[in-house]
Amino acid sequence: MMRRLLLRSSLFYSGIAVVQSGGQAQGHSAIQPQPNSRDPSPFEYVPVTALDDYGQSTQLKHAMESAIRHGTPVLACLCCNDDDDEKGGDETAILVCSLQRPRLGVIAPKPKTSRGGCTTTITTSTGNSTAFTHHPSIEGLVQQLATRDDVDVWSETNHEPVGTGIHALHTAIVSTGIRSDALFLLGQLQQHLSQYWFRYDSLPSPTTQMVKMARDVLLDFLGYDRREEMSSLCGVGSAAPSYAEDEDGDSKRAGRPLGVCSFILGFDTSRPTLTSVKANGSSEKYVAQAMGIGSPLANDRLSKRWRRRMSRAEAHKMMGSILREIAIEKGWASEDDDHLERKDLTLVSETVTVSGIELDY
Question: What is the largest CA-CA distance in the chain?
Fold first, then answer.
């Protein structure tokens, strides 16, 4: 027994002596911990199919957060285009308000004004804030996707048909998040819409087919393979870029999720529709919804303040107060600021109807 104790003590002290002399003692891994090989490097590429401990895609989570953290605050709701509450009409317009900050070195393109009697025009006015000069990078976010000339356009004052053959707005889209991804999504939808029109001589439904087109593009960037599903369909196929062959006959496989959140505005029925499409391809119809920075706070306020048959003036006042709360929460402005323009913040209001888009800031 005494020999065993002496032997253990000699081995213990000899190990300490080896460590103190700068050597490495075998069998004593606890003295010098080895780096964990399971810890990923921050510079290591994480594929879109990689899942975290909770079974969620890391790239998809980052893409959805980018639209919330870095996207422009955008609010949209259904409202009555007439400001007179006594008329009691249904919602015929979609009011889109955004709070924009100047982008240094950027000059936004001027709004296009159509000619030849086309009613889908974009008008710009300065409202009551003529004392402030807006930054040249401020622009409208609503983009037209499709117009149609095979429907009767009704007057908003006496509710009588204006005439036939007049171009009416059919579908529009507004996106927030990574600007390049939003432009790419817009280009894919416009390209597929033209193919759909030449094939069927009609426009797709904004609530179903247009939402499916946007979902195809977003899911294609997630690496979702729809070959078996699309093989049974004919016609123009899918809007996903992987199924659009180039001149050499090769398909373009996408690489990462798109960091955008979009609103698809439809006017193919008597009442306009507002559909939200997220980066993961999920979609839902709303009467009032927000996206971008401060969207959780804005959605909570919209759920409590929005009501049926709101006039455009009431909806604009409601959205302005909500965007002001977002600016105060994010530290862009204080409660003592009377005008957001003094803090380089511009409230852009866009009234979207079947007659076109009216831009006001």
Answer: 112
Single-letter amino acid code for the residue at 166: I
Helices (H), ranges, the chain? 2-20, 58-69, 179-200, 209-221, 227-230, 295-305, 312-329
- Cα separation of 317 and 153, whole Å? 28
Q: Which residues pair with 191 in a beta bridge?
A: none
> Which is nearest to 140 in space by CA: 72, 92, 79?
72
Tell me the CB-side half-sphere exposure of residue 101, using CA atoms within 13 A: 12
Would you call 121 exposed, middle or buried from its count of C-beta atoms within 10 A (0-12, 13-18, 19+)?
Answer: middle
Phi, psi of 169 (to 5 degrees): -70, 130
> What integer pLDDT is reported at residue 236 of this predicted model?
63
- Of 270, 271, 307, which is closest to residue 288 (Cα–Cα)? 307
What single string gives the DSSP state of each residue in 108-119?
PPPPP---TT-S
pTM: 0.76
Is the CB of residue 75 less than 8 Å from the CB of residue 294? Answer: no
pLDDT, tens digit, 9 for 90 and up, residues 150-204? 665 555 444 555 554 567 889 999 999 998 899 999 999 998 898 888 888 888 8
- Tell me if residue 275 falls in helix, strand or coil: strand
* DSSP designation for 80: B
Answer positive or negative: Cα dihedral of 29, 30, 33, 37: positive
Q: Given its phi and psi angles, is residue 94 left (phi above 0), alpha (psi -120 to 50 degrees) or beta?
A: beta
Phi-psi sector, 249: left (phi>0), alpha (psi -120 to 50), beta: left
Read off the tokens for 241.
Answer: 């870029």
Q: How far apart are CA 232 and CA 253, in angstroms?
A: 21
Write out the two tokens for 156. 């908003």
The tokens describing 336, both together, are 């003592």
**Could you tell me if 251 and 242 are in contact, meaning their C-beta atoms sit under 8 angstroms apart?**
yes
In one letter, which amino acid is 12? F
Q: Which two tokens stand for residue 72?
A: 């422009």
